[in-house]
Design a protein that fits this description.
Largest sheet: 8 strands, mixed
CATH topology: Rossmann fold
CATH architecture: 3-Layer(aba) Sandwich
CATH class: Alpha Beta
Helix content: 40-55%
Strand content: 15-25%
């Protein structure tokens, strides 16, 4: 599907379209750049040739490559280099999901002038005290349970047994109803969880986008990663839209046509600054 591949710091960046404005689509766990396959054609068609789309897999998430753990700032710096390489003179549109939201929000906090529009999926004010207080005890245990298990799998893969670590990772993904085929996920994708639970994300900025934002989330989940207050704050900002879907965490896979329509309609009425 992609028409060009550009390498930045050993990461393949797949580019579709040749418009002047760049949309960077960023995945999370346990996905790759292929997460957004169903959205590329509709977005490019709706833009009338004005956009191009760039996608990449985070280091360690491409199983054909060796494990490559990176701290939060390292991931933000990588995203900065990719964006500066693709669009040195113009801000970009970011489309984020899962851990991609965490990394993208941190980039946005550090480089607000480089992002014209933001589409974020299913991860909102993930590190706010308001969200933490809003989660019931059972939800907090569920969050800690799956994240610590994946962090442990990272350590097992690095120091004990990669085969065992892969089984641990894939068993948790099955429990979470992850749509990614088991053969496409591995223990080396789990390093953000390990880094988070050892304090590496302690100083991450609070999530407070300043650009026009479309925030989308799935309702069919045992807990949410956004507080109601944060959603209301986003809805009240000029140029911002919030929308819940009858979907799970992977909204773009559960409701691909509806999700693509939502994104393309919002992009069409939200001009690039």
């Amino acid at each position: 599907m992609s028409v060009a591949v550009l390498q930045v710091d050993g990461v393949d960046v797949h580019i579709d379209g040749d418009g002047a404005h760049t949309i960077v689509m960023v995945h999370g766990w346990p996905d790759t750049w292929r997460l957004w396959d169903a959205q590329v054609a509709p977005i490019l068609a709706a833009s009338g040739g004005q956009d191009r789309i760039a996608r990449f897999s985070w280091p360690g998430f491409d199983l054909a490559q060796p494990p490559r753990p990176m701290p939060l700032q390292g991931l933000v710096d990588l995203l900065e280099r990719i964006i500066d390489t693709l669009s040195p003179g113009q801000p970009v549109t970011l489309v984020l999901h899962d851990w991609g939201c965490v990394f993208g929000y941190e980039y946005l906090a550090q480089q607000p002038q480089r992002v014209s529009r933001l589409v974020a999926v299913d991860i909102g004010d993930h590190n706010s005290a308001v969200l933490l207080r809003s989660l019931p005890g059972k939800a907090k245990l569920m969050v800690a349970g799956y994240q610590l298990w994946l962090a442990l799998a990272w350590g097992v893969g690095r120091w004990v047994s990669r085969a065992l670590a892969n089984r641990m990772t894939r068993s948790m993904a099955r429990a979470m109803r992850c749509p990614v085929p088991p053969a496409q996920m591995g223990w080396q994708m789990n390093y953000p969880y390990a880094d988070q639970w050892t304090g590496g994300y302690r100083l991450a900025a609070q999530v407070a986008p300043v650009c026009p934002t479309l925030y989308v989330w799935g309702k069919r989940k045992p807990f949410q990663f956004q507080s109601q207050r944060w959603v209301q704050q986003q809805a009240a900002r000029p140029g911002c839209v919030v929308q819940a879907f009858d979907a799970g965490h992977w909204v773009m896979l559960d409701q691909p046509a509806a999700f693509s329509a939502c994104v393309t309609e919002w992009l069409a009425r939200t001009p690039v600054k």
